[in-house]
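Section 3.1 - Work completed
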Amino acid sequence: MVPHIYLYETVKDPQQFVIVLPRYSRSLHSYLMDHINEVTIGKAIQIALDIAQVIAHMHAYELVHRDAKVKKILLDTNNQVFLADFGTCQHGKENSTFIGSRPFAPEITQSDRQYYSYQGAAVDVSCLGVLMYVVAPKDIFHEPQTLTEIDINTLD
């Protein structure tokens, strides 16, 4: 079993393929909305590495997610991350469908042709880069209150 991918069961019928996952307490997006100032560089790196491990495992089987983002990463009660929502997932390396959500990977948006193809794995790597930016610790801008504070801040 690969960490950060947990599957209860699958259901197949002629119309659809259903993946049954556990119920998680929240998404990474909602966690970051409440705790963005508490995320350390270590935690951000761990999140990125965990999701990168899942994506690498998928790519080993020529599966591409094509829409990995903070709203599609779930957290358990221990704040461990799990990739979810495989509705845009596709088998194969070459893709030609315009799918996912903004921000789109450059491979998708830079084509001016009506028909184009792109490497799905490259889109996943682009999504991982956006994820790394989003979870990176943010310094809160402190607005100076006095003229002395402004002068001291300009010396740094």
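Second construct:
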Amino acid sequence: GAPVIRSLRDLDDYEVAELVRKKTEACVTAIVFGDDEAQQGIAPSVVDADGNRVEQFEPGLIAYARGGKDIRFNQPSATGGYGEYKRASLHTISAGFRVPYELLTGDLSQVNYSSIRAGLVEFRRQ
């Protein structure tokens, strides 16, 4: 019942957050930095080629900080564990619905003929 619905929501929230993170990392390719003594503030302002402040990122963006003399390329982080988390969540969800994981997901990578047959026979008895 409710715990399974919570698990579904949590999995969806996690996937949305992961997608946003990946999209954000893909947008900024590089930022060009440099010393500009006239600039004030704790962080350099990022501007486009016309001198307008960049407020929205887009894929492949190379942003220039005023007085740019150094370039730093974005290095997307490699977050491990996404597949394992998703698989574990889907196992929890399938158990909550009392449906074999393989039927819920269509993932047959961890079964052989005998194990899937035994699981399906038991499922059909319910």
